[in-house]
Every structure is written in structure tokens, then in C-alpha cells.
Amino acid sequence: MFKSISAILLLLLSLIGSAHLLPFRQQANNTDERIAGGAEVVITQFPWQLSLRQLYHPRQHRCGASLILPNRALTAARCFNIYSTPGGYAVIGGSTYLQPESGSFQSTLERIIFHPRFNLWGREFANDIAVLWLVTSAPTNARIRPIRLPAENTAVPYGAQAYLAGWGITTSNGQFANRLRYTVLPTITNAQCNSVYPGRILGNMVCAGGQAGRGSCNGDHGGALVINGYQVGISSWGFCGGANRPSVFTRIATEVKWIRSVV
């Protein structure tokens, strides 16, 4: 009996857990600079931004993702669970809004490739990265364009202004944003970040933010952290812009060799 109860609890947990210089001319209301509630942009300012969608119940936005080749994308491995299959998901790009608009692009997934050292049950979400193979290649235009990746082991500069966009929830207990939003997050050192989250920050992570009201939230995970036109991180976990609670990202430069081996 206890074994069956444990199995049910593990299943429930898996379903819950599957929970730069400015690259554009700013056209936003800065009254609240976190994605949770924050500043609106249009997709041409973040043309690599994708919405990862569930095609089964509930049929909705799940996570952010980034286009890195016309038929390849990156997202956070935590956006899926152990029962996820490619046929249950699609990506949409080229749309400012969650509802696809004219000129947008949509593709189902051919494959989901998880980092071999990602552990769904791991507390730190180490190696929280997945490569998505798209069934349909995206066009390249003003609304849809791949993001560049850094060279292997490129350092993320301390104090750099990093940009993150997404359709994540607009309050800590609210609904997904209908329109794409962005925030600016200064990067901090791993030592500083580890002082906030003792023992949880690893070398393949990068942290940014920590100011009250600025950070990633549910629905933003999987999105690209961008500095000077390069994706330096993938949104992994955090506390929805809580004061002194930096957002944590998978560090692309430590994973780029693996990424290139599977694209």
C-alpha cells in the first residue's frame, strides 16, 4: 500500500514540476520592470522568443523557449516531466501575443533531447536544459530570427545588463501575460548568488536580478537571458522577482559543446 501511495505522489510531483546592451529601441512602460506585471514589447525586439505549448489538457502556454536554428530551439528541461513525449507539444514564434497572430510560425516537435545529467528530482535543477527538434523549419524575417550562442566557457560579465522576455504570470499568483513582456536584470557573481541560496548554485548556473519586483516567474522558465545579442542563460528557477531573490539560469557557455553535439 505504501509503495502505491509513493508512486502516486511521485506522479503528482512530476506533473507539478513540469510547473546585453539594449537589443532594441525601448518602447515600454517602465512602471514595473519585472516580467511578472512588467513592461510590454513587440516580438521584433525579441525575435528568437518562442512559446512552448502543451497540446493536451490543459492546452496552453507552458514555458518560454529560444530559436537557435531554423529547426532547433532551447528550453528548460524542467518544462517537461518523465511522461512527456514530443507529440504533446508545439512551439509558436513570431507572435507578440499568446494567441498566434498574422505572420506567426508554429511547429510541433520531432524530438526532445534532455541533457544527460539533468535530474528531474534534483533540488538544484542542475543541467536544466533541453534541445527541441522542430518538425517544421521557421522562416527568417523581422519577427523570427535565431539567437546567437556564446563560445564554450565564455565568462558572463559581472554587473552586465541582461535581458529576459516572456509571457509568464503577471503577479505571483496570477495568470500568464497575454502580451510579451521583458525585464532588465544585472548579473551577479555565483558567490553572491550562493550566499542567498547556500549550496544550490553550481558552476553551470548564472544568476541575475535580486531587486524587488524584477525577475522571472512561472511561464518564463525556458526563456533566453541575453547580453549583447548572445544567449547566456536559460531561465531555470527563482522567486518571481522577490527582493534579494535573484533569478537562476542555466549557463549556456558551459553547455554549448553538448548543445552543438545534438543539434
Report on the structure:
The chain contains 3 helices and 13 strands. It has helices spanning 2-17, 190-196, 252-262; strands at residues 39-40, 49-54, 61-69, 72-75, 89-93, 105-114, 130-134, 161-166, 181-188, 205-208, 224-227, 230-237, 247-251. It has a 6-stranded antiparallel β-barrel with strand order 8-9-10-13-12-11. The relative contact order is 0.20.
Second-tier CATH architecture of one domain: Beta Barrel
CATH fold node name of one domain: Thrombin, subunit H
> Rounded to an integer, what's the Rg over CA atoms?
17 Å
Helicity range? 10-25%
Uncertain segments are 1-34
User: H/E element string?
Assistant: HEEEEEEEEEHEEEEH
- Structural class by helix and strand composition: alpha+beta
Query: Please, how many helices?
Result: 3
Characterize the overall form: globular
Task: Report the average pLDDT across residues.
Answer: 84
* Number of beta strands: 13
What fraction of residues sit in β-strands?
A: 25-35%
Output the CATH homologous superfamily of one domain. Answer: Trypsin-like serine proteases
> Ends: how far apart?
44 Å
Describe the sheet with the most strands: 6 strands, antiparallel, barrel
CATH class of one domain: Mainly Beta
Task: Give the strand line-up of the largest sheet.
Answer: 8-9-10-13-12-11
List the main descriptive attributes of the protein structure presented here.
disordered N terminus; alpha+beta; 13% helix; 3 helices; Thrombin, subunit H; 263 residues
